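Appendix B. Chain record.
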Amino acid sequence: MTRSGIRARWVLGSLLALSACRIPMDDEARPLDVEVVEFDLLETTTSITTPEIVVLPRFVLRLYWHTASDNRLVIAEKGRETAPSAQEALTELAIGPLEADLQLNPDLQTLLDATMEPLLSGPDDNGIHRIQINRPATEALGTAQVAELVCTVTQFASIEQVEVVDPGGELFSLSGAGAVAITGPARASDFGDCEEELLPTEDTLPEDQDS
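Structure tokens predicted for this chain:
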């Protein structure tokens, strides 16, 4: 057999083999068997946290009380939505610390009495305000009591000088820090500008003379 005959036979055999194992065309494709698996989608939720809005009071009222344990002058601050009056401050001062105040500082006390019923008037032509209390002027007021009255009302910019009188208009004799007698009306400067009295520390305690 010639070389060309052998080649023709080989080509023919290859074609027959391909026709026997041909790949199906698209129009002969069979659908695949697919197993359908049912499942529930997990519900997703988005948690949105709203930030807490803290509304600060527009005004702050200061009441000057004392500690029950060591009789120090301290300040209790109260928030107000409206501007407080000096008379309101005096009334609350004499009533003394409420439960809410004592929750913040259980050592608070007032050295005044609600029955004193402090009543503010003035100013007069000299710019002096008067605090009338329901006590005779013959009953002396302690320095700490006067400090509570004077420091509380002089936080108001319009009040700088204060006298304390009884219902008959008689003046009380007043004394300031260090029991120094006050000549004329009292001012915040008579009580160390009404700064809180801090607890003594090791640096401020007097040295032991025997050491």
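Further analysis of this model is presented in Appendix C.
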